[in-house]
Specification:
By secondary structure, this protein is an alpha+beta fold. It has 8 helices and 11 strands. It has 2 domains: 19-128, Trna Endonuclease, Chain: A, domain 1 (3-Layer(aba) Sandwich), CATH 3.40.1350; 146-210, Arc Repressor Mutant, subunit A, CATH 1.10.10. Helix content is 32%, strand content 24%.
Length: 215
């Protein structure tokens, strides 16, 4: 299923890269118009605090230098946290995001969107493609639909009563005996039930800790 967007995305008479990414949060395909948007969508999809994601969601009017303009953000997200405003994200290459003209336009857009009841956030490629974080997310997404039983989750949860952190391989004896132990642990990281230092690449020796919440 294609998640609806406000405008049709195409690359007719253009060299831009477009595509669709499957969202487990939305149970459907979300469109993107650049590989940078695709990479940011991966960050959004892996964020457990986010409930819904929409690409090219709405179009707004804003005033800049005495003229009215139309603006369509790249993504809109809605949060699990009650009363938190929906966030509209704009994704830009680093040099564009740091230009004076863009920052002036962004200030006007931010003020206009606040009146509509939205938070406005710009993300540039240095943030989005920071490594090894992005490589970790590309790795973890392959385990997004992995099944982990309630019993396995309870055993892992109980183990952290005696220790603040564990290496992934140290948690393997707690899981049901099969060959998918690490895959289950990678799923728990993707879901946000286990956390880790994003400056480290994911390996069986990665140190993780428990995220308190709904297990």
């Amino acid at each position: 299923m294609l998640i609806p967007s406000i405008r049709k995305i195409h690359n007719i008479n253009s060299s831009k890269v477009i595509g669709l990414s499957y969202s487990f949060k939305m149970a459907g395909l979300i469109p993107w118009e650049s590989t940078l948007e695709r990479d940011w969508l991966l960050h959004l999809e892996s964020n457990p605090a986010i409930r819904e994601i929409y690409g090219q969601p709405e179009t707004f009017d804003y005033s800049f230098e005495g003229k009215w303009h139309r603006y369509t953000p790249d993504f809109k997200v809605c949060w699990h946290t009650p009363h938190r405003l929906p966030t509209l994200y704009e994704v830009k290459p680093h040099d564009v995001a740091r230009s004076m003209l863009f920052q002036q336009q962004s200030d006007c857009i931010r003020q206009a969107l606040a009146t509509y009841g939205f938070e406005y956030v710009v993300k540039d490629e240095h943030e989005i493609r920071c490594q090894p974080s992005l490589n970790n997310l590309n790795f973890l997404k392959h385990y997004a639909d992995m099944f982990v039983s309630r019993q396995d989750r309870d055993r892992i949860h109980s183990a952290f009563d005696c220790s603040k952190t564990y290496r992934l391989q140290g948690l393997l004896p707690l899981l049901s005996p099969n060959t998918t132990g690490l895959a289950k642990l990678y799923h728990l990281i993707w879901r946000g039930w286990l956390d880790y230092d994003e400056r480290h690449a994911i390996t069986p020796l990665l140190e993780v800790w428990l995220v308190e919440g709904d297990w």
